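Exercise (ungraded).
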Amino acid sequence: MRRMITRAVVLLVSVSLWAIPAVHGQELSAEAGRVVDYLLQDWQRQFSSTTIPHAMQFMGMDVEDDLRLEVVAHLRDNDGLARNLQWWGANNYLFSNLEKRLAKYLVLLQKRAEKLPTATEAAQALEISEAELRARMAFMAQSGFLETAANDLGFALAPGFQRWAGPLQHNFHTVRIDGNAPLDVW
Amino acid sequence: MRATRLLVFLAVAGAAYAAAVFDPRPSGEGVATSSLSLPAAFDREPLPAGYDGVELDGMPFVAAELHGKVVLLDFWAVWCAPCITAVPKLNGLQAEFGGDEFEVIGYAVYSGPGEDVASFAQQHGIEYRVVVGNNDLTFDYGVIGYPSYFLIDQEGRKVRKYVGALPDLQERIGADVRLLLGNVP
């Protein structure tokens, strides 16, 4: 009887450890866990590749930057959770469509060897406010795609930016099938 | 005056035509062609990096060991539908030319662990060598779409790049392989 109880306790502890894996040594928050669960379920659908911000939106949550970073850190550390992560990498799932547009814009300028724009020019090109642009760039710097720089924009592409988003390279494809929640596809 | 201009134009055009038809380089450096429908010569460039990887049995794959062979290097991924559609054509190329002089290498990138790639290759009847590739190499090779094929000559130089789903893949690449192998009728 005692042996059975011991086994049950060991089993329970193992299951709970498996269910809430550590992120950089910290426990995954309940909210982040819900997002991860949503994504893992969503990615089981054929062609589905829903991003973290879209998952949060579809779940009725606010798209909070810190929560996104927590989720992506967990996915980076646990790429065995889904084939999508092994194929395209966790970073591919972090950015919103606006951030992907911004990333593509900066990468294109770099590719053409053009001077980086001022914040005003970039905001105009992307048809967003300067405040939003700066907030998005700050987030993208936190994520490792950009870095702060002493230029008119205040940011530059971080070393290794070409490899950062894996083979999908900031492309986004959000679709909605009649009557169903939207999803991103690859 | 107008006649002189016309003569100069004809002379320049004639020289360009002759240069296109007759390859002045000694054999081995370029491929001489007997028909205007075939390329006068291949532009050969060094590869940006060796396409080393890991064999499906876990052993290292060293690209330099293929020196002396013409190689069709296929950058593909298990999630890429056009890559899968191309498998029978690539099997065909391997069957037609494969051996001591030619080899198709299926260079799997962003496709997960080797076991997944191996089971996928078996499931889809791939009959040429499949290697688990180095993802970073896609950037060095400028791969922006899948599949991307690189035709590599016996000296390990790139001679052609083909991108995407090619309806006449086997005929088109087969013609270039024939030229490289010197099997032009």
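Further reading is listed at the end of the chapter. For now, observe: Chain B touches chain A at residues 77-79, 109-113, 116, 135-136, 138-139, 144, 146 (CB under 8 Å). DSSP finds six helices and eight strands in chain B.
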